[in-house]
Design brief:
Elements: E1 2-3, E2 6-11, E3 16-21, E4 29-38, E5 43-52, E6 61-65, E7 82-90, E8 93-94, E9 101-102
Antiparallel strand pairs: 1-2, 2-3, 3-6, 4-5, 4-7, 7-8, 7-9
């Protein structure tokens, strides 16, 4: 996912959000993310957060490590199912949300 000042992505293996500032070190750039779990009947928002690139030099990548339930493991609702989505935000510009991705690695 990208906006004018940078981009970001999610790496399933290791539950990592990556963000890169390609504009200037003073640009506020972050990846906002949401994690939902399947409760046996519907998806429930379980966690949300941000990964910031504010301290990065131009062109440098930063990473935020998370620890999500795997899609096939028993989750907090005693069911199986875990998915993640994210968006890039810079200043007051909000990129589109990614599609939902099962956290299955």
């Amino acid at each position: 996912m990208s906006v004018t000042s940078g981009n970001g992505c999610f790496r399933k293996y290791g539950d990592q959000f990556w963000v890169r500032n390609w504009d200037s070190p003073k640009v506020s750039l972050e990846v906002r993310w949401q994690n939902e779990l399947w409760d046996g009947q519907r998806w429930q928002l379980y966690r949300l957060g941000t990964c910031s690139a504010y301290q990065l030099n131009t062109g440098q990548w930063g990473v935020c490590n998370k620890d999500f339930y795997e899609n096939t493991s028993t989750n907090a609702y005693k069911s199986q199912g875990s998915r993640v989505r994210w968006q890039i935000v810079t200043g007051t510009t909000f990129g589109a949300w990614s599609s939902w991705h099962l956290n299955d690695q």
